[in-house]
Amino acid sequence: MKIKPGLLISVLVFLLFGSVGITAATEIAIETAVETAVETEIETAIETETETAIETETETETKASTEAVTEISSYDRAQEVEAAPGVETQVTTSERVTVHYCPAIYGDKIVWYNSTTDADVCMYDLSNSTMSNVSANEFDGYDPTVYEDRIVWIDSRNGYPEIYMYNLSTLTERRVTNFRSYKIGPDIYEDIIVWVDMRNGKYDIYMYDLSTSGETRITTSGLMQYPAIYDDRIVWTDSRNGQGNNDIYMYNISTARETQLTKDESDQLGPVIYDDKIVWTDMRNGNADIYMYNLSTCKESQITTNEYNQANPAIYGDKIVWVDYRRKHSGAYPDSDIYMYDLSTSKEMSVVTEGSSQSDPDIYGNRIVWVDNRDGYWQHYNIYMFTLETSEETGSIEPVEGLKKLKNYLNSLCLQPSTATVLNAKLDSAIAYLGKGEEEKSLTELENFIECVYSMQEKGRLEDKKVECIVSETHRSIDLMKTPDRI
Ligand SMILES: [Ca+2]
Ligand SMILES: [Ca+2]
Ligand SMILES: [Ca+2]
Ligand SMILES: [Ca+2]
């Protein structure tokens, strides 16, 4: 679950952190995605924020020059954080100009929008390595999110932004809203879609129930942003306690009760929710940190303590990911990285520390996606993915399950379709033999599979690091099949 879009929070990050926090990616994202009309609305909405931001701007600039001096020591400090184990893959490719933003992931599906010409919502299916355009019309489609087989986004084909949904199982599109107003940042959980709607002149949260086709206004004070939903709980950023003192609020759909979750007098921004855990960006320490509130224990905890900015979190299970500004590389362009915290091990790790900016992360299972501009500073923004290694899992699983996991793993690597087809065919054959109890034949197929992987490496169709990982995963499956009670 993550916040969509990153646009408003990017504006806020820009205003709060000035030259320190803004990335070229988010800057262009704002320009491209927010059409002229919407832009005016946002300008109006953040007018009050701007006043505060201007006051702190000088302060921020002073801090930026101090940071330049301490660059080496901050780099050294970053080295103390262990790199997360796993494999990185590039999802979208960068031929000529590419601008892909706002990725979200659920299961095998990654969605984002491409604003190269008019904006389109795209999807990559990791299970069969295919890419598709979900909103292929000449108008703008943007801010996508995905839940199971449902992709939700904002579409401007009717002259105003409306919420649309595409169902991947029934292959049908559905128009969700029908009101001439600006709408921002939809999120979905099961049958409930939430978003921010300006139909009353200010920002309120609305909800639509796909099962009843009923639309409900959740808030009335018009000071809400960034809604996120999990189960029957909607969370958002609320400025009713004053600008510079945003707080996190929650609405429970089942009980129709609203709760204020944070009381600190600084800004708490951009909440996301998974199960009983809500995480957000918190300004109470004078720099941005990630905080969490656990609804089961009613306890708030501080996730990051680094003196630089940590912002824009996403959460899945015990894993929290965010954009981290602790490493600053030399050069004219701002830098940011993706870091993570595992609540089950209490460990903070770096996910990607490549130069240039990495931003807007989302996470599902052991897959983390983000926007990356390492392929060219100005107009090259690609979607990348990191697959966290989960080595402890193989212990007691059946060999067939092991091979299916191997296949999922293979398909998570975003291989070229032709390469994926050949390798998948070999694995399917090994799985089929194993299913029929013909383990020797299955082992032979797996050995062929490894030969094939090496041959593709020689032809330059598979990168060395991927080969190493695929072969080691295959050997784990083979070992599983060769355990004494199996053969
Ligand atoms: Ca379009
Ligand atoms: Ca507050
Ligand atoms: Ca911090
Ligand atoms: Ca970076």
TrEMBL record:
<dbReference type="InterPro" id="IPR011042">
    <property type="entry name" value="6-blade_b-propeller_TolB-like"/>
</dbReference>
<protein>
    <recommendedName>
        <fullName>Cell surface protein</fullName>
    </recommendedName>
</protein>
<dbReference type="InterPro" id="IPR027618">
    <property type="entry name" value="Beta_prop_Msarc"/>
</dbReference>
